[in-house]
Amino acid sequence: MTTLTNSPATRSRVDSRRRYLAILDDPMYTCLVGLQDLVSYETARFWRERQVRALHLPVTTGSISSPMGLGSDSLPVQVDLFGVPTYLADSMQFMLEYGCRLAPDGCYYLMPSFRGEKADSTHLSQFFHSEAEIPGELDDVITVADAYVRYLAAAVLEHLTDEVAGVAGGVAHLEAFLASATARMTFDEAVAALEGQAGCFEVHDQWRTITRRGEEKLIEQYGPGVWLSHYDRLSVPFYQAVDETGAKALNADLLLGPGEVIGCGERHTTADDVRAALHGHGVAEHDYQWYVDLKARRPLPTSGFGMGVERFLMWVLRRSDIRELQLVERYNGEVTVP
Questions:
Q1: Are 222 and 185 in contact (CB under 8 A)?
Q2: Are the beta carbons of 54 and 105 closer than 8 angstroms?
Q3: Sheet holding 53-54, edge to edge
Q4: In this predicted structure, what is the pLDDT of residue 68?
Q5: Strand arrangement of the beta sheet that strand 77-81 belongs to
Q6: Residue 155's CB: how many other CB atoms inside 10 A?
Q7: Measured between alpha carbons, how far is 124 from 113 in angstroms, rounded to an integer?
Q8: C-beta separation of 281 from 69 below 8 A
Q9: Which of 16, 72, 100, 218 has the fewest Cβ atoms within 10 angstroms?
Q10: Residue 26: alpha-carbon gap to chain centroid
């Protein structure tokens, strides 16, 4: 199991207004800049080789992908924009689904996302999201998402081995990940595998979720990387398609380093499927009428994934606190400098 560490300049609330000066002397942040540049460049290379198109999208939306309904695990950030209530993007997955109707091999973006929760060791208020949508099913997107992470990890070893090793204490964790196939298991298999180990799952009225402790246990036993798939249907947002039983979502998370690094899933193809999912998750259809109309006008089987860039870099640099992975801090409800 990879041991996570903290930087000497780890986030301190003693005087966060001076952090931007203090980190100038911390080599981790020079390395972080190199990694941010690498992720941007290699992401474009990865998708260009597959003829997947980049989309330029706004950071505002009226259709958040984490509505206040069953299966939503984040809070939206609502703002008033010239008198019009709108949201800062938590994800532009819906726009990627739209883009697949215009880009037949799929589309992607790398852009900021905003969440309403208070930041903690694994969550940022503002973070970078690498998301893509492709024609195909769940297995197709798991395959391409796994290839993407491996592509980035290999690029780190090729271009930044010395820098990363100096900060992370080595690169054996990257080499170990690249040396073997990523394990795969269903949610039910994970429950059976961790039976009797306390604190690994939470049981709700009609569904179950895995905890951070549960993710850590799976990584420890089956890692370094684990694809965990087919969650209980109501534990994921409405837009995830379901299997033939109707009880399991066609979704998967990549567990790596600090836990979930990538979330992916197959989408509903038809308008009727979306309507049924909205009703089942307790989400008002009128808020997503355009999405229903899109599925009615151009039904298309697609699947997509989103990777939290800072979560990926936590693994690369073996950090235990994602708040270190901000070059410039941003926290909800706080004024920060610069």
A1: yes
A2: no
A3: 53-54, 107-114, 126-135, 302-308, 259-266, 251-256, 225-229, 183-186
A4: 60
A5: 60-61, 84-88, 77-81
A6: 18
A7: 9
A8: yes
A9: 16
A10: 27
What is the C-alpha separation between 311 and 128, in angstroms, rounded? 9
In the beta sheet, which residues pair with residue 242?
249
Q: How many residues does the chain have?
A: 338
Using DSSP's 3-state secondary structure scheme, residue 121 falls into coil
Which segments in the chain show pLDDT lower than 50? 1-2, 8-14
The reported pTM is 0.94
For residues 90 and 76, is the Cβ–Cβ distance under 8 A? yes
Give Cβ neighbours of residue 245 (< 8 Å, ≥ 6 apart): none
Q: Which domains does the chain have, with CATH numbers?
A: 16-179+262-325 (3.30.930.10)
What residues have CB less than 8 Å from 18, skipping those under 6 apart? none
